[in-house]
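To the team - flavin-adenine dinucleotide complex, inputs and output below.
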Amino acid sequence: MPVKKEDLKFIKGVVKFEEPMARHTTFRIGGPAELFVYPSDDGDLLNILRYASEHKMGTFIIGGGSKLLVGDRGIRGFVISLNAPAFNKLVFDGEYASAGCGMKVSEFLKKAAAEGLGGLEYLAGIPGTLGGALMMNAGWPTKAIGDRVEEVTLIRGLDRETLGKNDIKFTYRGSNLGDFLLISAKIRLDRKPKEGIEAEINRNFEKKRQTQDLCYPSVGSVFLNPSGTMPAWQLIEKCGFRGVSEGGAKVSEKHANFIINKGKATAADVRKLIDEIQKKVFKEHQIVLKLEVKTIGDF
Ligand SMILES: Cc1cc2nc3c(=O)[nH]c(=O)nc-3n(C[C@H](O)[C@H](O)[C@H](O)COP(=O)(O)OP(=O)(O)OC[C@H]3O[C@@H](n4cnc5c(N)ncnc54)[C@H](O)[C@@H]3O)c2cc1C
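Output:
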């Protein structure tokens, strides 16, 4: 039975029905979310999770949608966004920052720099939220956010708890936080002159502009770099995929691990390119290219 508006009157935040996910992903791809919600605070969030659990409905937490490939037929159940003031708070205490996981990484860096606090300049130019960055252990080129995390407050099931750094295991573009909903994090920064931090941020932006394809919608790198061999972009290039298109999706000419949306790409187009790349790389190099992009919904 489809959920009716009256059934969701208990939600204080905004609820959207059949919301196109293409509006919420940097790929600009994705069919409708049955229910797209912005809880207004922790209590609202818990009520939504409780309702979903009681009604056996799925829940998916979205950050900035910069690592997502959402199927063309969309997502059933709730897509939950923490893009609300209650999840965007930022408090500095000495060299530590406590920030809500709905906050954009770019805003976090800017506000920390204004306080003369740096150390995460390598995140400059990585789109998305703090929650997404923690979940993905985002970083570039060799450093990652996990190195700086002191604690993370999260929801496990329907309970709120805080994990200290010794309980959290960050790995290459991942962590052991995968089953949880991340609410806020305490991050260790370094006191530095503001001008130096800003200059470093600008330098990193410039390096990214030179090496990454930022002119078209994408999710950044599609595949993880396999260990002990060539990086994914090189394997893809060696297999002849640089510049290859499938419908509206194309392997970037500038960075072969990027698939770009030339305008009207569907998730099926991207999926097809991904499958072809994985098959050929395996056939020619016996290497399984694993996905860095998260695929969700019905394709
Ligand atoms: C042009 C471009 C360049 C990029 N460059 C880099 C780069 O250099 N380095 C890099 O690491 N990444 C890069 N990325 C990828 C992407 O920006 C990062 O992975 C980013 O950290 C994802 O954050 P997000 O908020 O957009 O997460 P989303 O894409 O919304 O979600 C990613 C995952 O995190 C989960 N998630 C998000 N928020 C929460 C939460 N609060 N609680 C629980 N789970 C949550 C989602 O469910 C999903 O599984 C790039 C992307 C683009 C488009």
